Amino acid sequence: MEIIRAKVRVIGRVQGVWFRQSTKNTAGQYGVYGWCRNNPDGSVTAVFEGEETSVKAVVDWCQRGPDMARVDDLQVEWQTSTEEFDRFSIR
User: Fold this and answer.
1) How confident is the model at residue 1 (pLDDT cuts 50, 70, 90)?
2) Which of 3, 37, 60, 73 has a CA 20 to 30 Å removed from the CA of 19?
């Protein structure tokens, strides 16, 4: 099983709409570890690590987010996995 890592920046109406908690819940459903945080510019940044199919599923979910969110752009940077996480956290 290959562990991969993705860093994403989600742009749109993604703060104040449960985006971070929903991301944590979705990552948990797929067994993906990492973190997410709000940025001062109104975007959300997240890092995901896990099995390739699981990480890609969570990244795909980020393209739409929770019901009240509006995702205008999703920037994805594929990185080398560090396997430093043992859970998913909100920062």
Assistant:
1) confident
2) 3
Beta bridge partners of 50: 4
User: What is the C-alpha to C-alpha distance for residues 72 and 52, in angstroms, rounded to an integer?
Assistant: 25
Q: So which residues are the catalytic ones? A: 20, 38
HEC letters along the chain: CCEEEEEEEEEEECCCCCHHHHHHHHHHHHCCEEEEEECCCCCEEEEEEEEHHHHHHHHHHHCCCCCCCEEEEEEEEEECCCCCCCCEEEC
Q: Let me know: does 82 contact 5? Beta carbons within 8 Å.
A: yes
Q: What is the pTM of this model?
A: 0.96
Strand order in the sheet with 88-90: 70-79, 3-13, 44-51, 33-38, 88-90
Say yes or no to pLDDT of 8 above 90: yes
Separation of alpha carbons 79 and 41, rounded Å: 23
